[in-house]
Amino acid sequence: MAKKKTAKPECDARPVSLPDDATAEELAQLAWAVAHPARVRIVRLLISREACVCGEIVAELPLAQSTVSQHLKILKESGMIQGEIDGPKVCYCINASKLDALKKLIANL
Known about the structure:
Oligomer: single chain
CATH topology: Arc Repressor Mutant, subunit A
Structural class: alpha+beta
């Protein structure tokens, strides 16, 4: 029995300009920052408020304090959030410029 030839799907052959390494690195770093559902929830929470104390974040998530602190550390290291020490508390807020950068990088993906 002879095999039938199947048509290969046609790909769009438009030339693509690849982003530079710095842009790819920035996208990867910011994407990693929001690559966990808990961190997405933290970002959404901080977007909805001007500032948020760590204890309030813990109260909103079904996670232990230490786990939330680890997620906050990752978000802060990426620059996605900022934290200010206010006595014994740390107040966190979203870094709007990093959030905008992430949106633009994804839009250009």
